[in-house]
Amino acid sequence: MTDETDEQLVPAAGGSGVPGDVDGDGLSDVPAVGGDVEEDDALVAFWQAAQAHLGLGRMDVVMGPGDRDLVAPPVWSFGDSPQLADELLELVLAGRKTATAGALSDYEAAGEALPQVGDVSIVTDGSGTPRVVLRATQVDVVPFDEVGAEHAALEGEGDRSLEQWRRDHEAVWRRRLPAEPFDPRMAMVLERFEVVYPTLGPTPAE
Predict the structure, then answer these.
(1) At 196, which helix (H) or strand (E)?
(2) How far apart are CA 9 and CA 171, in angstroms?
């Protein structure tokens, strides 16, 4: 799930990322995919707690003898710096940010599959600590100049206006690719998501 086109995928705990979303200060907030649940005890514990909370139990996968019977979702963080990762994560936890955006070309260049409705992923803070599980609720691919005011508002950054969203995202892309002309028809991957863990109230497992 991802947004330095304004959102930029930045690897969680040292992984490789794919670009994504910019905030009102011209910063970006794209998820960075690249963490590995099976190789990080904190992530393993966090994902097991999330599974129990969601009533999923331990979902087995065929892995070889001795491997952990844990389905590992993608792990990523927002933005292109630890500070931005924390700032954008706080917007998500506060319920202000429920959408992100990234350039289709960034997914293609990184060899990353596009998110699908129902996909879950773990988002870390700037230090790589797992903080939240998100589930994609809507995914659309549209030209940059057809992104609407509703999506801009759902990204929750700055004054939430479409004008600022366009201005900030264009500025980021121009900064990242100064030798290439900005194309207002560039394809954008728009994703809406919901927080599924942690949530308030009793859990299914209780």
Answers:
(1) strand 187-197
(2) 17
